[in-house]
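Feature request, filed as a ticket because there's no other form

It would be nice if the structure record came with a short human-readable summary line next to the tokens. Right now we just get the raw output. Example of a typical job, pasted below so the devs can see what we mean:
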Amino acid sequence: MTIKVGDRVPSTNFIKVTEGGPEPVSSDEFFAGRKVALFSVPGAFTPTCSAKHLPGFVEKADELKAKGVDEIACTAVNDAFVMGAWGKASGVDGKVTMLADGNGDFPKAVGLEMDGSKFGMGGRGQRFSMLVNDGVVEQLNVEAPGQFEVSSADYMLGQL
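Raw output as currently delivered:
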């Protein structure tokens, strides 16, 4: 079943990319007591993700935070080292927290997984964004396959 607005984010685990290396973090802990703009991409270093999705949130980070967002996070079904390298190459510089989910537990738990096998990518997360306030989904923007419209930073800004 797909998560919806008003639902609590299920308990899963991420690996947070930090300057000191990979750090395990539970979704319960990560979302507790604050407003988080989370976006999911099918994969680090992939075309739309690298050219538009992540750069948009980096560029709009200050505007999102000015509208009450405490943290911006990107997740993908990639390991922490790939997410770290992608974040560094993309200049996230503390604006976007990179959350690795190498086993795809989060997209499975929220019902937003996708099968990228025909592209040689295996199981992945769909492209989406959500605004999570103290663990509860306030906004959910899921893209149609192959699209990039409703999960962008600009779209989320328009919702705040």
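Something like this underneath would help us a lot:
The mean pLDDT is 92.
Residues 47-59 form the longest helix (13 residues).
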